[in-house]
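## retry 2 of 3
previous attempt timed out at serialization; input unchanged, resubmitting
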Amino acid sequence: CSAWHWMEERMKFITEYDLRARFNEQPFTDYIIEKNTRLTPGARQFLSDRRITLLEDGAEACEAADSKKDSLAIAKLLSDVEVLEAEFLVITSQIIETDIEIAGQMSKAGHEFGRIKTLLTDGAADLNISFEGCTGMDKDHFGKDLGNCFDITDFYIQSPNGKIIVQMNALRAKIRAMRISAAEALSADREEKRQEAVTEAVNQIINKLSQLICMAAGVKTCRRT
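## retry succeeded, writing output
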């Protein structure tokens, strides 16, 4: 727990002066007040003015603070997922002008983020992403981190689908960053099974995107080294 823990049991009343001195020494966002300890009206106003959360009852307060922190991490994660959903839609709208097949598959892959949001909030969801095996991916490994089929270099910018390839590559990188954030948030929440499920689901979307990048680049044979 990161909140300031007032340890002087003998003190029955904590004044604004006490809080101000402690705050100037080390700013805090949560303040834990133990049993048999009271705040003066001025002290409560000091906390209110700075939007400092007042928690009570020692260990239980620490648990409440940690729970609040975990909830904020999940909320931020859900927000990141919504941003990725929006970017999928934007790129799909651009691809549809040049390649309807890739656009359709991009649209389906983007819809799978809805199931990831369900995993994050409810802890249960079935990812039903369409997948056809290729020389670099098979069904048994589709939910694992398989890396990129090939590096996206300046060469591809000049290709017919160069703009699309670069955009999809950037989106893939953002999804990987979200996967790390998800692992950190769920690890702190001690949700190992949910963490594994989310990681596998995100890997499937990343791998599907890698396949679509290959399609856009006209790659017929896997270039994995």
